[in-house]
C-alpha cells in the first residue's frame, strides 16, 4: 500500500485514544479548560460514570463565536505563548482535548464571552461538525460530552463498569478541586451531590475533601529550598489508611500522580506507619517552570523534575520535621466532637452477650487481662501454676501453654518436647479469617445486630461508595443504610469480629472496594475484604492473655486449616526442636 495522509477524523480518533482513554480523562480535560478560563465556579454533572454524559458548566472567559470552530480543531489553542514549551502556566496547552472528545463522542460547546449578546453553540459527533449558531445562554461555557466512545467501539470495549468509571471520574474532580480552592466546585454524579464547595482557603478545602477525621488532626507543612516551596497538610502517623486514596499532590497548580513524590511520602513515614498502610497527605509544590517538564505524557499527569533528589529530600525532610513536632491541640478524636454528642456513642455500645456455644471455644470471648498491673522488666510472665501439665499427646501438637512473653508471644511445650513460639496477633488474624471464610462458604457471614445502631461520618464520596456496595457488605455481615449525605447508619457487624471499630472498618472496606472496582472482581473484592476484616479486629500484639485464652488459641490453631501462616504470609508460630536448640547453642553443626 502506498503511503498516504490519514483523514483528520482518523487522526483525531487516534489522538482520542491517547488523550481520552476513559471518561475520567475527558472530565479532567474539560475541568482543566474551565480552570484555564479563569472560572470562579465550576459544576460537574456526571451520568452513568461519565460514559453516558459529562456536563461541565463554568463562568469563565468563554469562547467568542467566531473561535468556536477553531476550539474543536486539532492543535488549535489560545494558551501556548512559549513555543519552546518551557514556561507552561496553563493546565492545557496541546490543543488536543476538544477535537479528541469530539472524535470519540458527541460533544456540544455552548459559550458566551463577556460582551457577546448571546451564547453560541457548536456540535461535533464522531468528528462531524454542525456549524455554530446562536442559542440562549449566560456568560461562560457549557461543555457536554455524551455517549463516550460511541464512535470508537474498540475503545468502548475496554471501559469498566459504570460504577468503576464513575469512581475514577469523581476522583479526578476531587483532585482538581484540591488544586483550586479559590474556585467554587460542585460535583453531581448520578443525581447525588458529592460535594458543593464555595471558594475557600486551602485548609478548608482540604478539610472538606479529606473528611472531618483527617481534617481534625492534619498538620500544616511549609518548607522551602532555593526556589522550591512545599506546603500542604499531612496526617499524623495514627491517621494511616488502607490505600493511598487520601494522598494528593499538586505541582505548580496541576494535579499529578508522580511515583517519585509517592515514594518520598512513603519513605517519610516508613518508620512510623505499619507496613501495608498508607499516610494521608495533601501536598503542594511550587517551583520555577524551567525546573519541570510537564509535557511527558498527553494526559499531563506525569512530570519530570530537573532535580529529583533535591525534591525528594525536601519532601522527606519537611515531613519528618512536621511529624516530630509535639502533637497539637487540634487532635481530638472524632467521637468527642461536640456535633457528635447527640448521636449514639460509637462502638462501646456494641456489647453482645457472648453466645454460649462460642464461649466453649474460649479465646476471644474470655475477659482479657487488661487490668493487670504493668509488668516489671524484664517482661517475662512467670509460668502460671500447673502450666507444664502433660499435653494431651498427639491430639495437641502445639502443646500446653508455658507463658506469654513481651505481651506478644505465647510459649508452649509441644507434645514432642519442642518449644513452640506463637505470634498471638498473626495467629488470631488467621483464625478469624478462616472462621469468616468458612461462614462465607456456607452462604453468609454471621452478623451481629448492634444494640444501638451506630452513625458513622464519612465524606459524601465515601458514603456513596459504601452505599453502592451495600449488597456486598451485607454478604460480609455488615448492614448499613444511608444517613444523610455524609454518614451511614451501621445496623450490624460480622459476629466473628471482636470489638469492631465500625468507622475504621467501613472506611478501609470503602477504599478496598474503590481500588478493586472492576466489574468481574466481586470475588476478588470479597476475598480482599475478608482478609481486611480479619486483620482489622484481631487480638493485637501487646495484650496480656490469660492461660485459658492461650490454651484456646493453641487448640483453635490446631483445628484450623492454614493456621501456620497469617493472611500476610508470615508464620504464626515457630517450633524449636531439640536439634534446633542444639544448633543454636553450638552443640552440633
Ligand atoms: P487546550 O486546552 O490545550 O488549549 P483544548 O482542545 O482543550 O486545548 O481547548 C481548545 C481551546 O478552546 C482552548 O485553548 C481555549 O481557547 C478554548 N476553550 C476550551 N474550553 C474552554 C472553556 N471552558 N472556556 C473558555 N475557553 C475554552
Ligand atoms: Mg484543554
Q: Please give the number of β-strands.
A: 22
Alpha carbon gyration radius? 29 Å
Give the ligands present.
adenosine-5'-diphosphate, magnesium ion
- N- and C-termini, Cα separation: 74 Å
Total count of helical runs of at least 4 residues: 18
Largest sheet: 8 strands, mixed
Supply the helix-strand structural class.
alpha+beta
Write up this protein.
The chain has helices at residues 8-19, 23-36, 68-71, 97-104, 153-156, 162-179, 202-210, 212-217, 259-269, 308-324, 356-359, 424-441, 460-468, 470-475, 502-515, 522-536, 547-559, 578-584; strands at 41-47, 53-58, 106-112, 119-125, 128-135, 140-146, 184-189, 192-197, 219-225, 228-234, 247-251, 254-256, 281-286, 292-293, 304-305, 400-405, 409-413, 419-423, 447-457, 479-482, 487-494, 573-576. With 589 residues, it is of the alpha+beta class. The strands form 5 sheets. An 8-stranded mixed β-sheet has the order 5-4-3-6-2-1-7-8. A 5-stranded mixed β-sheet has the order 9-10-13-11-12, with helices on both faces. A hairpin with a 2-residue loop joins strand 9 and strand 10 (228-234). The protein is elongated, with a radius of gyration of 29 Å. 40% of the residues are buried. Mean pLDDT is 79; it is low at 327-393. The site of magnesium ion (MG) has 5 residues, from helix 2.
Amino acid at each position: 500500500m502506498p503511503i498516504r495522509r490519514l483523514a483528520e477524523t482518523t487522526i483525531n480518533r487516534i489522538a482520542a485514544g491517547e488523550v481520552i482513554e476513559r471518561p475520567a480523562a475527558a472530565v479532567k480535560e474539560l475541568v482543566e479548560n474551565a480552570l484555564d478560563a479563569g472560572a470562579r465556579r465550576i459544576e460537574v454533572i456526571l451520568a452513568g460514570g461519565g460514559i453516558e454524559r459529562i456536563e461541565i458548566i463554568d463562568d469563565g472567559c468563554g469562547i467568542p463565536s467566531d473561535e468556536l470552530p477553531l476550539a474543536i480543531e486539532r492543535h488549535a489553542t489560545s494558551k501556548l505563548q512559549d513555543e519552546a514549551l518551557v514556561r507552561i502556566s496553563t493546565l492545557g496547552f496541546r490543543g488536543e482535548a476538544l477535537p479528541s472528545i469530539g472524535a470519540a463522542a458527541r460533544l456540544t460547546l455552548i459559550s458566551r464571552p463577556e460582551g457577546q449578546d448571546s451564547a453560541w453553540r457548536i456540535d461535533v459527533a464522531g468528528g462531524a461538525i454542525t456549524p455554530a449558531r446562536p442559542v440562549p445562554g449566560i456568560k461562560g461555557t457549557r461543555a457536554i460530552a455524551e455517549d463516550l466512545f460511541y464512535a470508537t467501539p474498540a475503545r468502548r470495549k475496554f471501559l469498566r463498569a459504570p460504577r468503576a468509571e464513575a469512581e475514577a471520574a469523581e476522583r479526578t474532580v476531587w483532585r482538581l478541586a484540591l488544586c483550586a480552592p479559590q474556585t467554587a466546585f460542585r460535583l453531581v454524579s448520578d443525581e447525588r451531590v458529592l460535594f458543593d464547595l464555595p471558594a475557600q482557603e486551602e485548609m478548608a478545602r482540604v478539610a472538606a475533601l479529606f473528611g472531618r477525621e483527617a481534617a481534625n488532626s492534619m498538620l500544616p507543612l511549609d518548607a522551602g529550598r532555593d526556589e522550591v516551596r512545599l506546603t500542604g497538610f499531612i496526617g499524623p502517623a495514627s491517621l494511616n489508611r488502607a490505600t493511598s486514596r487520601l494522598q494528593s499532590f499538586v505541582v505548580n497548580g496541576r494535579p499529578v500522580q508522580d511515583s517519585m513524590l509517592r515514594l518520598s511520602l512513603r519513605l517519610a513515614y516508613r518508620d512510623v506507619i505499619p507496613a501495608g498502610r498508607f499516610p494521608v497527605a495533601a501536598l503542594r509544590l511550587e517551583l520555577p517552570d524551567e525546573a519541570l517538564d510537564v509535557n511527558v505524557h498527553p494526559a499531563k499527569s506525569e512530570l519530570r523534575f530537573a532535580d529529583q533528589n533535591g525534591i525528594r529530600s525536601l519532601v522527606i525532610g519537611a515531613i519528618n520535621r512536621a511529624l516530630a513536632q509535639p502533637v497539637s491541640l487540634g487532635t481530638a478524636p472524632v467521637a468527642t466532637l461536640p456535633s457528635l454528642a447527640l448521636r449514639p456513642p460509637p462502638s462501646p455500645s456494641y456489647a453482645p452477650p457472648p453466645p454460649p456455644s462460642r464461649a466453649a471455644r474460649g479465646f476471644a470471648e474470655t475477659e482479657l487481662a487488661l487490668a493487670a498491673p504493668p509488668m516489671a522488666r524484664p517482661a517475662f510472665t512467670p509460668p502460671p501454676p500447673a502450666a507444664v501439665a502433660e499435653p494431651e499427646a498427639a491430639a495437641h501438637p502445639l502443646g500446653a501453654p508455658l507463658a506469654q512473653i513481651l505481651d506478644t508471644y505465647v510459649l508452649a511445650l509441644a507434645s514432642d518436647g519442642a518449644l513452640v513460639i506463637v505470634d498471638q496477633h498473626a495467629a488470631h488474624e488467621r483464625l478469624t479469617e478462616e472462621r469468616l471464610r468458612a461462614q462465607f462458604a456456607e452462604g453468609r457471614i454471621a452478623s451481629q445486630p448492634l444494640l444501638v445502631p451506630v452513625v458513622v461520618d464519612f465524606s459524601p464520596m465515601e458514603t456513596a461508595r459504601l452505599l453502592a456496595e451495600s449488597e456486598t457488605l451485607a454478604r460480609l455481615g455488615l448492614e448499613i443504610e444511608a444517613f444523610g449525605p455524609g454518614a451511614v447508619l451501621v445496623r450490624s457487624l460480622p459476629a466473628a469480629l471482636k470489638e469492631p471499630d465500625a468507622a475504621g472498618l467501613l472506611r478501609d472496606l470503602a477504599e478496598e472496594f474503590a481500588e478493586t472496582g472492576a466489574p468481574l472482581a466481586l470475588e476478588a473484592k470479597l476475598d480482599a475484604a475478608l482478609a481486611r476484616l480479619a486483620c482489622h479486629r484481631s487480638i493485637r500484639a501487646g495484650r496480656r492473655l490469660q492461660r485459658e485464652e492461650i490454651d484456646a488459641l493453641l487448640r483453635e490453631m490446631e483445628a484450623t486449616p492454614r493456621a501456620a501462616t497469617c493472611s500476610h504470609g508470615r508464620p504464626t508460630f515457630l517450633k524449636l526442636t531439640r536439634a534446633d536448640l542444639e544448633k543454636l547453642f553450638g552443640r552440633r553443626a
